[in-house]
Each structure stands twice: as structure tokens, then as C-alpha cells.
Amino acid sequence: MSQLESIIWHVLGYSAMPVIIIGGFAAVAAISIWLLSITADKEDTN
């Protein structure tokens, strides 16, 4: 494996974990907000 390939794989390896954590956090937040907006108490206009 060339030096460039080694650098690329190291960058990909070290960047994978933060991307997974941040992506998971964003997905859970988005799903939670969506569920809360569905189940929120709606005001009756009657």
C-alpha cells in the first residue's frame, strides 16, 4: 500500500467514529422532534 493510500485510510478511520456519533445524534433528535410534533396536544378551534 502506498503512502497516499495509508494516509487516506487513516483519515477515513479516524473520521468515521465522530461522523457516526454526530449522525446518530442528529437522527435521534429529528425522530424525537417528529414524534413529539405528532403526539403534541392540539388546540381545538371549536
UniProtKB/TrEMBL annotation:
Annotated keywords: Membrane, Transmembrane, Transmembrane helix
Transmembrane segments: 12-36
Name of the protein in its database record: TIGR02808 family protein
Organism: Vibrio inusitatus NBRC 102082
